[in-house]
Amino acid sequence: MKTGPSPITSNSVAKAAGVSQSTVSLVMSGKSAGRVSDNTRDHVMAVADKLGYRPNATARMLRTGVLNILALAVPNVKQPFFGEIFVAAEKAARQADHAVVLIDTQNDPKWVERIIDMVRGRMIAGSIVYASDSDDEPRLAEIADQVLVIEGQNSGSLVDINVESGVDAVVEHLAGLGHTGIGYLSADYPKVTFQRRFDYFRKKLRDLGLEFRNAWHSGATFEIEASTPGAEKLARQREITAIVCDDDLLAAGVYRAARKAGRAIPDNLSVVGFNDIELARVLSPELTTLAIPTERIAQEAVHKLLEKLEDPARASSSYEAELTLKIRFSTARPAKG
Amino acid sequence: MKTGPSPITSNSVAKAAGVSQSTVSLVMSGKSAGRVSDNTRDHVMAVADKLGYRPNATARMLRTGVLNILALAVPNVKQPFFGEIFVAAEKAARQADHAVVLIDTQNDPKWVERIIDMVRGRMIAGSIVYASDSDDEPRLAEIADQVLVIEGQNSGSLVDINVESGVDAVVEHLAGLGHTGIGYLSADYPKVTFQRRFDYFRKKLRDLGLEFRNAWHSGATFEIEASTPGAEKLARQREITAIVCDDDLLAAGVYRAARKAGRAIPDNLSVVGFNDIELARVLSPELTTLAIPTERIAQEAVHKLLEKLEDPARASSSYEAELTLKIRFSTARPAKG
DNA sequence: CTGAAAGCGCTTACAG
DNA sequence: CTGAAAGCGCTTACAG
């Protein structure tokens, strides 16, 4: 039994103010200009204020068909990078008068179905999806108009990162230092973005005439403890003088592995990360890494999703984020053979 | 202009299935038992399924007055601890068929007003607030029935941690090792929980007949780089042989400060953290810290808030989380003077 | 400038 | 077992 005080509605405000319900509605929705006298408006607002009235959002949504809730689906909320994405997205959404429901796709195996349910059930207007798995996008197809994927499958997606120029910068930096044995530590998650990075990395090596052996590739997850073996496999090979990582968290794993393998960073082993999270500057030595404009990406995603929801037909221009190589102290010339 | 396909409603399903709208509603809400024949039910469900129908959540909410969205307000989403709280809360909420809107109170100065707006505007049913500032709770008073505060002001709050027994364990551990100069590194945020910890810490020292000097107290924020000075102030005092921290992130700051001050952990300086986040096991040496049952706390908060929303009158029993001292390798006997 | 009325898509008594 | 109807609290033509 929930009894509670009877809620304040536009009707009760109207009664208290001695006007009609429509007048209250006009005033509260800010559409009273030229339709309601200033006196009436001020009076209604005063009464509404005194009663602590707020228009019922569900009634408004039902009537107008306009929802102001978005979802943001990320692989793992606990990772600082996605915390930053959320904070920036929430802020942009708030400024556009929207709330954000956060979804952790690792934590909820049925997240695709849930997002579809929420969109079709008119609980959310649409959703941003960060870094889809290879098979997620086809399943999201039935609500494609309400979804914006970041770092996703389609080359034509509205918000993406320029993997190619980023990887170019990394490989050219290492090659320029004289490295010829460059290993790659992949993130062990089936994200299309990770596949793209590795594919292009190998292409770039070929273009530069550099060798790449299968044994120079390994994978690891983001749990720092579990990731060490994959990093060690690479760090123990003396031909490898530099390791490129899919993520700064992986680079932290390489630091541990290097310690175990007795290799000093950067003198004996160079390391490059990805994302430039706070950790990159906390590691010792500070990590050379590919910085990604987190805040901008989140803002663009919110704005472009909102545009798309306004009008799915009008193809909005897409935003491709440029990555910036932050050269710090984890890369140096390889030790003399 | 948003045109789009006309949405599927219970009415269109009814028409397609050749039954009344009420029958569709009964079937979809799972209340058809004994009121609709099995044949009709199956037929309606088949048609609804084919059309991809989902009941309009806003219409349902408006009609029933029952909302299934909760808010969770935390000080800083980027901190892994709050990521864990969110993940566990979201899971518990989802199992009770609720969605969670996450609010970063640091990111949104007007969060209190926003939560009040959302509750009164029937956008959310209620909110969990983690670690309020000293002056937040009075401002939340007008929606007290819809709010549950964790680690808050009131001793009678529904979900809290047992600060006293936790601090007891820490101080007794250090005193037992022979420490007499125990410093305290506070979190520089105006949270009531931090004040409580420090107050009780000093009381406990008094009870054990141990001295505490004002100079042995310092504060720091959680940005690892900015926090170092506060930690250094403590680490440079040789009378201090152990430092208790309000958070593991602060303990990480002490590790850096100790390196600068030339003090080895634990031989020359003991350190104790708070929360036992993943970082605690990544630090070298692994950190002795007070573990908090993150998942349980989040679950209890969701369940107790839901109970409270059901019936604000029925005072639910409260849950006080016990803290567990994880003794690892950052604490040892003090060096001989 | 103001108010009466329709209707958004549901749920839920009520009648049959 | 099934359907017609009221009503949740808004917004928005429409009439005056």
From TrEMBL, chains A, B:
GO terms for molecular function: DNA-binding transcription factor activity; transcription cis-regulatory region binding. It comes from the Bacteria. Residues 8-64 form the HTH lacI-type domain. Coiled coil: none annotated. Keywords: DNA-binding, Transcription, Transcription regulation. InterPro entries: HTH_LacI, LacI/GalR-like_sensor, Lambda_DNA-bd_dom_sf, Peripla_BP_I. PANTHER family: LACI-RELATED TRANSCRIPTIONAL REPRESSOR (PTHR30146), TRANSCRIPTIONAL REGULATORY PROTEIN (PTHR30146:SF138). This is LacI family transcriptional regulator. It comes from Flavimaribacter sediminis.
